[in-house]
Design brief:
Blueprint: H1 34-66, H2 79-86, H3 92-112, H4 118-131, H5 133-150, H6 156-167, H7 193-196, H8 246-263, H9 267-278, H10 285-292
Length: about 300
Amino acid sequence: MSGTLGKRGDRARAFVPDLIPDPKDIDRTGPLDPKEQRDLERIHAARDNHQHAKWMRGKALEAAFRRRLYRGEDGTRTRQEYLDDEWDGISESAAYREIGEWRLAAQIADICERPAPDSHVRALVEVADAQGCEPVAHWYGELRRHGKETGRRVTAEVVANLADFLRSGAEPERLEALFVPRQLPSAKPRKPAASAARPAEPGTGAPVSGKVVSHGQEGSFPNLGTSGAGGSDTAPAEPGRWTLSAEHVDRLSACLAAEAQRAGISPEHAADLLLQALAADERPFHQWIRARVTV
């Protein structure tokens, strides 16, 4: 694409820690001299090396999983046991999150000639799953180029604006519009607590509908970490009602996707089974919670 973000001094060289300048106090003012400029480029090379290593981790994890190399010498080791032994005990859901992000992160690094922050990749990964990594990475590169030319910061919120445009099937006519802060929705009056509460199923204490909604997304749960067809069956959020935070949605989605793959079912089916378990008659969920609360 045209208008890339520029070449970097040590990019063609293999990065080694010795390239990082020694941290020490130097009292200098004014423009950087050539040696200082080179030192700064090497500092940035260390930063980029870290980000490149992160998407390479995702590729390595996917290779280990799909080739079933995790099973060990005796052929009995599970994926989680492999992660405990070789990957500092990260969870399978965290591993699958890295696997889901590495292709887009690698494409962005190739187009922009530097990696993107994790928050930017995560804001775009869902739309990249649906539309392909290359076009999404192209528009991210255009966004970075425009921000550099106009002196505007490309924040996670700006990238989220780009994701909204691309998710709707439209391409932004003016990149400048993506830098406009989102307008907060007008506040709605809260209902009294008694009227806002929904009736519970007899003997369970669980809401009748049993629906889970995400915070700030008009009551929608974003397909539990998947990007396929067949949206979620959710109802609009009620004013004053507690909803899942974005972090809860992300963690729950990744966990469901990982466990569904292990069970050989779809994430949507796993979500339905989870909701059924929460509303089960054998043991109300509030009793399960109370048993785990420490005083």
